[in-house]
Amino acid sequence: MTLSTQQSEEDSQFILVAKADNARNVSNVLKAVHFKDKELATVFASENGLKVTVEDSKSVQANAFIQSGIFQEYVIKEQSATFMVNLTILLECLTIFGTGTSGVTPALKMCYGGYGTPLLLLLEENGVVTDCSIKTLEPEETLDFNFCGANVINKIIMKSECLKDAFQELDMTSEVLEILMSPDKPYFRLSTFGNAGSAHSDFPKDSDLVESFQCTKTQSNRYKLVLLKPTVKALMSSTKVSIRTDNRGFLSLQYMIRNEDGQICFVEYYCAPDEEQDEENDD
Amino acid sequence: MKCMIPGSNIKVFGRSIHCLSKIGEDLYIEPLDHGLALRTVNSSRSAYACFLFAPSFFLSYINGTYNQQETNQEEEDSFRCRITMKSCLTVFKSLYTLEKTVDKCQVYIDLKDCRLVFLLHCKHGIVKTHNLTYQETETLQAVFSKDLCPNHIVANSKALIDVVSGFQTSQEEITLNVTPQQVSFKNYVEDEPDPNKVVHSEMFLSPSEFDDYTVGIDAEVTFCLKELRAVLSFADAAGLPMSLHFESTGKPIVFAMESEQTLEATFVLATLADLPSSQSSTQHRVSAASQHTAVNHTSHTHSLTKQRKQAVNNSSSRSHSNQADDRREFRKTKPPNTKRQNEMDFPDDLNNQRETSHCRQPGSDRMKDIDAEFEHQDRVQARGPSSPVIPLHSHVHRASEHQTRPALFPEIKAAPKDNDRATQITQCVQPNRTVLARYEEPCDEEHRVNAKQQTGVVAPDDQCVDSANVSDSEDYDFVPGTPPSKRVGVYMFKSMFFGASQQLSQSLETAQKSSAVFKSMFFGASQQLSQSLETAQKSSAVVLCEDTDEEDSD
């Protein structure tokens, strides 16, 4: 074990101790829920693993699930622990040895002593140890989007590859992204309405990149593009994506992220539709 | 207009957009019978770029007004539009992705919704549609003629890239200097009081480095590096040799590329009209000017020009289509390689009275400046009562003066208000003001100089040379052995206004035959002018300076 300098009796004072041989497996997933201007993330720790939640404008919520299997050692003494932490700082600490993809990967030990105590990180690479202590904050209540599978109207699972271009080329002068899902043509369409005109990307349902196409009703909703912007990060590191909308027009995007060791993590975004939709549809 | 770009060509097309985007902010699209033209001009109108994609570039190319039922009486022939470069770049943002994913791209005009549509058919059945708003516009056309240029060099783009990469990225302009023996590129340094503070770099190339090397006259041209870099980035990626056509200081330089009859790219860059004192000897030009005075009845000097830059930017204010039509009428012929011209391309046309009234307007403050400049020239009256000065500087004796880049697109102003026009028309009954500047082969000049010095004739109407110089000039000893390169700098009169009328080109032809090239700064010369030209030619004296006084009354 690379962190052999740590004595096990020291660990007894922590309610959560998680060790990973590759800190990047953790940091890559956390990056997918990192919003540029929303730095605070709520961390729920349970015996299943960590769930990190970031919210913006009470309209979008991103959840990253790092299941306990990602860690080589994962010990939690209480049923659950919840705290809030600055995600920007956490990510900076996790990538303190750089993000290069060279063979050497830093090992991580993460410890949390309970309410009011800081989150301790120990990173080690090539015998160099970094000791980080990040202050935790009072957890805030997170939104419940009440998005349940029973209300899902349309669902498409596709390889991320084809959405990557589409999302990267989105016209950011547009205020909204319109997502149309339909059992009939054009099946799945992303539209923007920017200064220079409109742009659409159409994806046929029989494309070899579409794995599952379960659309029952034509539905077209608009979502604020600024809110969806952080999803591009998740999309870029993902291999597959599931797009779902429910009867209220709420959007759920689930990204499957495969890490360097071949393990799979999930990142999920919920987004509320743009309420001005009806007015804007007039043009 | 409807065309389909095959996947194999989409990258070239995208790259041309990227190249254009480095030059101008708007993209002018014009479908022509012989291909699709994409053009742009930079904000100071000193650089113009045009890509012409031949029909064979496309899978299919239809240039027609096929779904044009209602509307558009103005569009008598074809459709032209302008879109912002930014919007077009969103379509062709990533060349890599384009190349990898796009199978074909359809471009068409949706006249019903007034959108220019780019339909990208990508792999996996994905279809991306970009509906871009456009503005209808007149044709953008620089008026230039590369075929008349005495200097023609064909270079491998790699060689030019090597040259350009030798200069700092902060360098704004470079000077190209050619002689039959060698080519040099050096950085252009603007007025810097302390010469020790400036880095001067110069790079010499031998003519053998070039695929073709024809240098008719020694020339030194200074142009913008930024645009050249954009041009080269395309040439490099396309792997096309580039041909340079240029003439002399102040005349535009043309970069052209051609690819197997599918693609033609032409870039016209304005060159600085005056050489910096630090680089070419001021001394020389001053002395040359005085020398010139002695012979001013034979070769009339106007180192015209530059500077219309500030005026040019107002050009949008004058897009009165009928006015443009008028102009078109008057300009029945076009110089080679010029297709349609719209008002923005036209030189100030002095051959027509209405035209005159229009072009008298531009930059009246400019003219004031010029008037002011001439006020302190003692010889102003010598030009005779009916000839106030042409609104163009002569910088022969003012080498240190601030430098400006000439615009490629001379300004033509909005039509004057009606009452203005009325007065102007009456004024225009007087002879039009026209200036002919003239280029003569040095050897020819030499003759004249000597001849003139013998007879001691000084033309009464030289307006370009300072009186001080004039007095000196009589003592000036012309040295026959002066290297041509030096003399050329003096006798080259350049025009920022390209575009010859038929008459002028005729006289040009004759002029060329007689080994003297006449250039008019206002190429739209009237018949009257060309007649005078011919007469002038016969009598080997070219001074036409007639004018109305209206700018004085402004």
Automatic annotation (TrEMBL), chain A:
Gene Ontology cellular-component terms listed: checkpoint clamp complex
Keyword hit for DNA repair: yes
Cell location: Nucleus
Described function: Component of the 9-1-1 cell-cycle checkpoint response complex that plays a major role in DNA repair. The 9-1-1 complex is recruited to DNA lesion upon damage by the RAD17-replication factor C (RFC) clamp loader complex. Acts then as a sliding clamp platform on DNA for several proteins involved in long-patch base excision repair (LP-BER).
Quaternary context: Component of the toroidal 9-1-1 (RAD9-RAD1-HUS1) complex, composed of RAD9A, RAD1 and HUS1. The 9-1-1 complex associates with LIG1, POLB, FEN1, RAD17, HDAC1, RPA1 and RPA2. The 9-1-1 complex associates with the RAD17-RFC complex. RAD1 interacts with POLB, FEN1, HUS1, HUS1B, RAD9A and RAD9B. Interacts with DNAJC7. Interacts with RHNO1; interaction is direct.
Source organism: Patiria miniata
Keyword DNA repair set for record: yes
Xref: PANTHER family: CELL CYCLE CHECKPOINT PROTEIN RAD1
Official protein name in the record: Cell cycle checkpoint protein RAD1
Record family assignment: Belongs to the rad1 family.
Automatic annotation (TrEMBL), chain B:
Ranges of biased composition (kind: Basic residues): 299-309
Keywords, alphabetical: DNA damage, Exonuclease, Hydrolase, Nuclease, Nucleus, Phosphoprotein
Region (Disordered): 280-365
InterPro entries: DNA_clamp_sf, Rad9/Ddc1
GO cellular component: checkpoint clamp complex
Keyword Disulfide bond: no
Basic and acidic residues composition-biased segments: 351-365
Keyword Transport: no
Domain of life: Eukaryota
Purpose of the protein: Component of the 9-1-1 cell-cycle checkpoint response complex that plays a major role in DNA repair. The 9-1-1 complex is recruited to DNA lesion upon damage by the RAD17-replication factor C (RFC) clamp loader complex. Acts then as a sliding clamp platform on DNA for several proteins involved in long-patch base excision repair (LP-BER).
Family that this chain belongs to: Belongs to the rad9 family.
The protein's name: Cell cycle checkpoint control protein RAD9A
Organism: Patiria miniata (Bat star)
